[in-house]
Amino acid sequence: DSVTLICSSDSNPPALNFIWFKEGESSSVGSGQSFSALQSGRFYCEAHNQHGSQRSDAVTVTVHHGAGRNVIVITAASGVFIIIIIIIIIAWFI
């Protein structure tokens, strides 16, 4: 699962670019006006124009990873295993 964060600015002149950061990390994690956070953490953006930059307040994001995909993978793998066993049993008796 993920959450999309959007950064906006009412600066004059308008912001030319946006850079996303995660607190505690030394490099940026994304760029552009929107950013999809795939992990939990505290994120903020910086809006830049020719006069400088301004940092937003950090927001806390908590991403919960559901078990739905894992269950589907396990079920599919179990189904394939059962089919292989059936084929082996049929081949054994033929």
Automatic annotation (TrEMBL):
Designated name of the protein: Ig-like domain-containing protein
Coiled-coil segments: none
Transmembrane parts of this sequence: 71-93
Domain spans labelled Ig-like: 1-62
SUPFAM superfamilies: Immunoglobulin
Organism per entry: Cirrhinus mrigala (Mrigala)
Domain of life where this protein originates: Eukaryota
Alphabetic keyword roster: Membrane, Transmembrane, Transmembrane helix
